[in-house]
Amino acid sequence: MDRMTSVTNMERSRMNKFKTDASRSKLSFEQLPNELLLYIFQFLSINDLHRGFYNLNLRLNTICYSPEFKLDLTRLKYAFDYYCSIQRSFASQIYSLKLCDEYDRLTLVNRHMDISLFKNLRAITIRKSSPENFDKILSKLHSLSNLSYLNIYATLIQSPHITTALFSIRSLKRLILYSFDPILLHFTDNTICPWTKLEYLELNGCYMTDFLKLLKYVGSNVKRMVISIFYKRREDPASIDPTIIDNLLCGDGGSPQIPGKTGNDNVNPYLIQSKYKR
What we know:
Mean pLDDT: 78
């Protein structure tokens, strides 16, 4: 009996030691190295990161401010509302932003968000916007010095203010415009200057006369344009500059092409893929 008791006590002692050693070997979340925490945080949304880790301690706050984020505000309404309440916390870390006007979201963006806080924003996509909200938010984008990509989708693009606002974004490299109706461009504002960094331009529909005016302002760095062109009924051919038309028809293999403006034979001229509709 004494022998069995002794064996049992020894087994209990070993089990207790095993549990103690195992508990000592476990790491708490905060004991993980910074590199691993940064890797984990890359898979979290801004809202989840804010809810779970923000303001727990100085170290986690510092790590939270390290990653860059894509922010998509076109999906769940509650996610949009939550971000609007915390926007100042992570605005400088967002490099890509998606917006839409469903549930009147752009009205709330214009009312409650300070676009100038997104100092490192490089890409914006806006879809299904009302003309009024689109005008308001577009007029603020010139303050984003790092913005290089702008995609406007399923939005009516005809306001006279839009052309001036687009040309005020001097950092643009890629511009994509998809409008419900033909895009109307207005070059009556004397402050409009050619883009100096634009490399890619895509328009899903504009009139030939507007397109020919646009060619004077696209800048010398444009490498490719994809344009759907509409002809107005009874359009006066005399209003179209014949020298530009000749240039459009100088491509090889039937592809319309404008000669490069750099004078460097090693630089490929930019191409125009045009769809002609009446």
